[in-house]
Write a structure and sequence with these properties.
Length: 620
């Protein structure tokens, strides 16, 4: 058997090598799991260090308990080594069960580890006395920790009743300051915005918490028997958040900080009791605040959804009014494309099977290409040029046809003369006219297709959805697309556009296009069947820089008493079915506000109405 008492370390971690040196007061013994009884019989244990990770299960705790009950270990001190602390509850259970002298951690360096092991080495007399003192302290700490968790099974009401009962017991025959009081209804306990020096326990009755907001008094909560009032301001020293007023005859216990400290010092039992009650009180307040915030967030999301639906409803209403005009605008170019394709279908076989010579076919191809860029001539110009070309083409009818296809132009006149020898002029010009007609109708189809594409693009943009994040866009282009959509309604009006040189603007372009559509449609409705519409865009480089869009009409103007109402929801002066939902200008104002801009209106009766939209470039 060893002559020295043993230091047993049960751990899977590496330990300092100096603990194994010969000059140490112990025999060093380190193992990674619990030893068998025959091994224990060869040692006299004075200090046992165990890794907390080896005490997780009931079976491990049973092994360690059996080790400490072995005759060789009954007088041994115990130290925990915690690589990672367990939960507070589990640690308290282990402390209560095995009463360790100390808890070591990986943060302790080698020198500190050795010092702690020497400090708790129990062989010297003074160490035995220190051990006894530390055991007493550990027992008190363990008792406090155990008592702290004893109240978790109690309901809020049961815990409050225990606190109130303990307080009344403390003040029994000891209430010279009359801290246990009874107040009638409408008595003020705490005042919003003022310092609070007291913690109020409601033993019986009811207290309402009120808060001032926008010159109104709002009820925040009603506190029943067992509740705490003024807890947050009492603990933190902050000004009162609400005013507390009794609603009926109410029994309270009023504690200032000095008395509160005396109460806690009077009994070890009261500290965990009060701590649990305060924590629960603050936790309930926090839970209620979180619940209120979630409810408000849900309400806000619902309002955002309703707002988006409102904007979409206005957009679809305007779109519905535009559809008939857009359909008419589409019908004209589609009809032109149909006519052109029919003509090309008839002329193309004649051109492909033409008996013309190579030079004549080359001239025909040049006439076809020239038809793409040929500027239309007025009737008087055709008449004048035909009269001047009769000698060249033989007769007035043939000359008119030749002028129409551009044969009298200097560049084509010479080629015509070179390939018309011994040819019937009328027959050759008829054949060359087929080339011109094909080119002319191809140009018309191209123009009409571009027109249709422009209408579809504008309509698609207007009816589409903006991305969540703003994008860079050309505001002038958005206004031009709006005019394309409204072109059918613009007939009969004088439209003047003064587009300034604008920087690209980070925005929601489809939403802003809805603003332009509403304002222009309103202007057209106001003017009736004729008038002048002026649209101006400007970039102001002043600091802060901004873009201005001005939409002005020459209509009858707006009466001063009406101008104040035009941005109100559901206000309209229009006839039913004429863009009159009463939400257009409201939506416009909201969209502009989302871009941190503003919309203003100026008007003079029988003169003009002018809407000015100002959009800042810096939206941060």
């Amino acid at each position: 058997m060893n002559t020295l008492h043993s230091l047993l370390i049960i751990s899977q971690h590496a330990w300092p090598l100096q603990l194994e040196q010969q000059d140490m007061p112990w025999h060093y013994w380190r193992i990674s799991s619990y030893p068998a009884h025959p091994q224990l019989s060869q040692h006299q244990l004075a200090l046992v260090v165990v890794d907390v990770s080896l005490l997780q299960s009931n079976q491990q705790q049973l092994h360690f308990n059996q080790l400490l009950k072995h005759p060789s270990a009954q007088a041994a001190n115990v130290i925990f080594y915690a690589d990672q602390l367990p939960s507070a509850k589990q640690l308290c259970e282990l402390v209560n069960k095995f009463t360790p002298m100390h808890v070591l951690s990986p943060e302790d360096d080698d020198r500190h580890l050795e010092e702690q092991l020497r400090l708790h080495w129990p062989i010297a007399d003074h160490h035995q006395q220190q051990r006894w003192l530390e055991q007493q302290l550990a027992e008190h700490v363990a008792q406090f920790r155990a008592n702290f968790f004893d109240y978790t099974a109690l309901s809020d009401q049961e815990l409050s009743e225990q606190v109130i009962t303990a307080l009344y017991a403390f003040f029994q025959n000891n209430d010279e300051d009359h801290l246990c009081r009874t107040y009638s209804a409408n008595h003020l306990l705490t005042q919003e915005g003022e310092a609070n020096q007291y913690l109020w326990f409601i033993a019986k009755g009811e207290v309402v918490l009120k808060k001032q907001q926008d010159e109104q008094t709002l009820e925040v909560a009603r506190m029943q028997a067992g509740s705490l009032v003024g807890g947050m301001s009492f603990v933190t020293g902050e000004l009162g958040f609400t005013s507390a007023v009794t609603t009926m005859r109410t029994d309270v216990i009023k504690l200032d900080r000095v008395t509160f400290a005396k109460v806690l010092d009077s009994s070890n039992h009261l500290l965990p009791l009060f701590t649990n009650l305060l924590l629960r009180h603050f936790n309930r307040r926090l839970q209620k605040s979180i619940h209120t915030k979630l409810t408000l967030q849900s309400t806000l999301n619902s309002l955002d959804s309703a707002h988006e639906q409102l904007i979409e409803k206005e957009k679809m209403a305007v779109l519905g009014q535009l559809i008939s005009g857009i359909a008419h605008e589409l019908n004209n170019p589609v009809a032109a494309i149909n006519r052109g394709s029919d003509t090309i279908a008839k002329q193309l076989p004649q051109v492909l099977n033409s008996p013309l010579s190579a030079k004549q076919q080359q001239l025909g191809q040049q006439l076809l290409e020239a038809a793409f860029t040929l500027t239309p001539m007025s009737t008087s110009e055709i008449r004048q040029r035909s009269s001047n070309s009769v000698d060249l083409f033989g007769d007035p009818i043939t000359a008119r046809k030749a002028v129409t296809i551009g044969l009298d132009r200097p560049d084509f006149r010479q080629q015509y003369l070179q390939c018309s020898d011994n040819e019937d002029c009328a027959e050759l010009i008829n054949a060359l006219s087929s080339y011109h007609q094909i080119g002319n109708f191809l140009r018309n189809i191209q123009v009409c297709a571009s027109r249709i594409a422009g209408l579809v693009k504008g309509l698609k943009h207007y009816a589409g959805q903006d991305p969540e994040q703003p994008v860079l866009a050309d505001l002038n282009e958005g206004i031009a697309e709006t005019l394309v959509i409204l072109e059918n309604r613009l007939r009969g009006f004088e439209v003047e556009c003064n587009y300034g040189l604008l920087p690209v603007y980070r925005c929601h372009p489809i939403a802003l296009q809805q603003v332009w559509t509403n304002l222009i449609a309103n202007a057209l409705d106001a003017m009736g069947n004729r008038g002048k519409l002026s649209i101006t865009s400007r970039y102001n480089e002043a600091s802060p820089s901004y873009i201005s869009i001005i939409i002005e009409d020459s209509g009858p103007g707006i009466k001063p008493e009406i101008i104040e109402k035009i941005f109100q929801l559901n206000f309209t002066t229009k006839r039913e079915g004429n863009f009159g939902l009463g939400i257009g200008l409201t939506v416009c104002q909201q969209i502009v506000a989302q871009h941190l801009g503003r919309i203003e209106v100026e008007s003079e009766l029988e003169q003009f109405t002018r809407f000015i939209i100002t959009l800042p470039l810096n939206q941060s």
